[in-house]
Amino acid sequence: MDEQQVLLGISRSDMLARIERCGRDPAMLDLGSNMLLHFAYEYLPDPPVSPTAPLSLADASWVPDGVDRISRLPDVVLRDIISRLPAKDAARTTALASRWRPLWRSAPLALVDSHLLPDGGASGPLIIGAPSPRAVTAAVSSALAAHPGPFRCVHLTCSTMDEHRGEMARWIDTLVAKGVKDLVFVNRPWPMDLRLPATLFSCASLTRLYLGVWTLPGTAAVPRGASFPNLRELGLCMTVMEDRALAFMLERSPVLEFLLIMWSQTGARLRLVSHSLRCLQLGYTHLEDIEVVDAPRLERLFLRNVSLPGTGKFTINSPSRIKIGGAPNLRVLGYIQPGQTELGISNTVIMAGSKEKIVPSVQILAIDVQFGIRNAVKKAPGFLRCFPNLETLHVYSPPIPEKSTGKVNLKFWQEDGPMKCVVQSMKKVFFYEFQGSRSEVAFLKFMAERGRVLELMVVVVAKACFSSVDDDVNVKLKPLTGAKWSSKACKLHIFKSRRTDVAGPLCRHNIACDFGWADPFDLRYYYKAERISVS
Fold first, then answer.
1. What is the mean pLDDT of residues 527-531?
2. Where among 228, 249, 279 does a domain terminate?
3. What DSSP element (H or E) covers 103?
4. I need a surface site. Which of 343, 367, 512, 516 has the fewest CB within 10 A?
5. Can you tell me the distance from the alpha carbon of 94 to that of 118, in angstroms, rounded to the nearest whole number?
6. Quick one: 504 and 382 in the same domain?
7. What is the pTM of this model?
8. Contact in structure between 176 and 201 (CB atoms under 8 Å)
């Protein structure tokens, strides 16, 4: 049994008994569960309302004549104001004046259960093992029953659903009947494999849905004809699902544009068929393989900390098999580790008398290269040839092991043969966590000397390079700065990394699906870094 699956189907008491038999501290169970839940909360969208939002009129004096001009606004404007308030504040508007009393019931409600906690959720997610906030659960039930709908958004993340199965089922029935648009529904473990009520699949009003710590129902249990005709964004965090259940959700979501799967605990196979999906994010997920079969609108594919089949361990590697078929508009791809990932490509062209597999649409690529392992570096040239029109390359260099398995020099890159993207299309190269190894320098020097249209090279130097007085960054970078650059107009920028605990490439999942960021891997301006002058 894989390590990702050991929590499934086991009660909290049984797990505690196992830990005690092994002579370990029972507190470790809650610590581990809290860590998992913390990651799930991190990937949830923020509520559109906040109990701590500043009021623009908080310091304003009342109008001298005492006239209530706000109440004179049209009903449609007042309802819009109410819909932008937390549920408690929205309900309190009924006490303002008789003009407001009927408006609360006709305004789309925003209900966030953490706002009903004594501190308004300011202290963050509740600790596992703490008593389930029954007062909050009761308040949610009352609000859902009292308001006729529709619901602008409902975020339910505080309750241990196993202790409130009756309320949970009624909540789902009510939300389906009254029409919720934005739903975040998280079960606080334990158990880890509580089955999601199948009636949720009948909620046609949903435009955004995030589910956390659930087992998705089998397709046989889903109501006939159920679908999500308006769903545009779907997030599955710490979910257990079968291949067919995932495919079923995609089939029944004809306008889905953004799909996020984080901390999936079963080895599902993702076979992507969607004519609407634009962005797919996968992270901390145990997937057997990924096959992009027919996704004509897919533009971005992100992979981070995806588990390899059979290892039972999360790594910064991608799945061992990624097959890219019908994705003619795929522009952004990463992070992928050449050599660890088998890249299947359906597009075959004849180049220099031989057949080569290519993805001509990809313009931005992020890769993870183990420069301390010779066999890993040797896979990189062939991998880059798959992307002949690449314009921007992001390279993450993980810590080099003490026992390096060989290095490659500039001659290796020069003799491996031409790479079309390096010579003809590559304009930007970003290199993260540079450690000064000969293999790293050889790669960067090759890019500098062969990149005819290169405009910018950014090197982020790892903090470890500054830990010793003997480490001179200028000396390590001298072969690069002294190289014969093919593009005389190219600018070289060197920064000192601010990261101390480097556990993988730096990513921001909220930026990944933001198409306002042309390059979601380029985080130079997302945080400030110290510029280094080289001579």
1. 67
2. 228
3. helix 103-106
4. 516
5. 22
6. yes
7. 0.87
8. no
